[in-house]
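Hi all, a correction to my earlier message: I attached the wrong file for Molybdopterin molybdenumtransferase. Here's the right sequence:
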Amino acid sequence: MTEIPRMISLEEAQELVLSHTTRIPAETVPLIEASGRVAAEDITSDMDVSPFAHAAMDGFAVRLADFPSNEADLPVELDVIAEVPAGATYEGSIEAGQCVRIMTGAALPADADAVVKYEIVENVTGDGKTGSRVRFASVPAARANIREAGEEAKEGEVIVRAGEIINPAGIGFLAGCGALEASVYRRPRIAVIPIGSELVEPSEKPGPGHIRNSNGYAMAACAHAAGAACDMLPIVPDDEDALAQAVKEACKTYDFVVTTGGASNGDFDFIKPVVERLGTLYMTTVNMRPGKAQTFGIVDGTPVFGLPGNPAAAYMGFSLIIRPALRAMQGYSALEHPHVQARITRGKKKKDPRRIFERATIARNEDGVLEVTPAKNQSSGLFGVIQRSNCIAVIPEGLDPVNEGDLVECILLDVPEEAIV
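and the right structure:
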């Protein structure tokens, strides 16, 4: 008789799954598709950015030689000899007593060494355009309001390093540096297999003894939110051979297989014997509530994770154990949502020694102190409570009660892993 794996802590479960998942190979994608993904290799610029010095704002390009060293000799009046819009250049010289009107982004004339913004220059004659005379009341700083050539990047310089997340601003940066595509880690392909003879598709109205397949949809959404490419496979009835066939076939195509339902010890719960029969079973229970029944193993080299059928239990298992693994597979270094301490607004007596994860809402009170309020209904069969929660309040292992006002750990499930809080 095969020995059933012991119940392990959440931390052991996370480490176990991470130790049996590997980083996905890289792929080259069009630049827009790289947003939010992890660069698999260094990306360099094909030129200096910007390739020329240009005006940082609308104003007048001037020579500092025309300004006195003693401010008592101000103001200075200069003649406007030309205008340079963005996309144009002025190739002529700027002589003593002259300046050039210039627009944001336009190339700086060779003789100019500062730009004075338009709003602080007074028109003496004309409207400030060519042929006008303008007055300056202060001495500009050298290279004021000028963006220098190569200020953002030099030709050949690494502008995004391997392991860096490419954000939307990074997409613009790369585009400006001539990158039309990027090498990023491929999104893992995930199969979600709903298990249960009682399940029907959401398009059907359930008859007696049946429920809609809500878990499958929620877990597929969780996979997408974790950056994975997910397919939800057909519902599998409570039949061991049918489930074994579905899992074995999925392991041929996908990088990670997730099942929902059938993870407990009932007469019709088959994911544990199926994983043991097809491969190696590493985990069956985790010291957490909801979500004690969490199955994990390897089948034909593919990680297979069996989530419970109760919505909250499945959601906790995915969020706390599967999601970190999926992020690691994509090259992310931050794997867990931020944790903060908050004062709990309602005490709790413990009858279960497991670590309890309560769906909750966290906010700052009028004094700016973080407070967390667990939802009144903590039934593991409800999705709506999770929808209306923004964090998980963690009640430690053991039977010690938690009193109102105690500091408890909170997991911010709606805050990105990279956030610093």
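Sorry for the mix-up. The chain has four domains: 10-24+187-329, 28-44+159-185, 54-147, 339-411.
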